[in-house]
Design a protein that fits this description.
Shape: rod-shaped
Number of strands: 0
Strand content: under 5%
Order of helices and strands: HHH
Radius of gyration: 67 Å
Number of helices: 3
Helix content: over 70%
Largest sheet: none
Length: 186
């Protein structure tokens, strides 16, 4: 064996490349690779492409769904913005009506108070006038009584004429004083 063939170690080559026909290994590697590629293309790639297509479709569906949701959200936002604007207008109208109602009520109460004050003033004036009439009647009665008393005194004392005039004048002055004091009180 020593004389037969030299080993790859003896030639200085690496053992993995020490094959009598290296091209045969390359051909067989290519054949195996082609068979593997054919098997992958036939059975694996359709499944991968189907999975990728399904994923692409799912993503597209999800994007479409998100787009529809965004549009729906935009419509809702617009609707709520309109409702908010309408609610603000209604609130302003309600506030204006409330202010008008308050102003009308205030004016009605003010008119009612003025009417009540005018009525009370009329009643007070009527009472004052009635009291003035009552005082005048009382004064007249008192004046008549004083005149009667003066006449009685004149008759009872049978005084002279000068004294009678003096008493009559005093009675008339008393009546005038009573009359003036009642006028001043009015």
């Amino acid at each position: 064996m020593a004389g037969m063939a030299r080993t790859s170690e003896e030639e200085g080559l690496m053992p993995q490349f020490a094959h009598p026909a290296p091209w045969a290994d390359v051909v067989w590697t290519l054949v195996i690779f082609l068979l593997f590629a054919l098997a992958v293309r036939r059975w694996v790639l359709p499944q991968v492409f189907a999975a990728l297509d399904a994923r692409r479709k799912a993503i597209a569906d999800e994007q479409e769904k998100l787009k529809r949701r965004a549009e729906a959200a935009a419509r809702l936002k617009a609707r709520y913005a309109r409702k908010l604007a309408q609610a603000e207008r209604e609130a302003e109208a309600l506030l204006a009506r409330a202010e008008d109602e308050a102003r009308r009520l205030r004016e009605a109460r003010l008119a009612e108070a003025r009417a009540r004050i005018a009525q009370m003033k009329r009643e007070a004036e009527e009472e004052l006038h009635a009291e003035a009439l009552r005082v005048q009647r009382a004064l007249r009665k008192e004046a008549a009584r004083l005149a009667v008393d003066a006449a009685e005194k004149l008759l009872q004392e049978s005084i002279d004429e000068a004294k009678a005039r003096l008493l009559t004048e005093k009675a008339l002055q008393a009546i005038e004083a009573l009359s003036q004091s009642s006028s001043a009180n009015e």
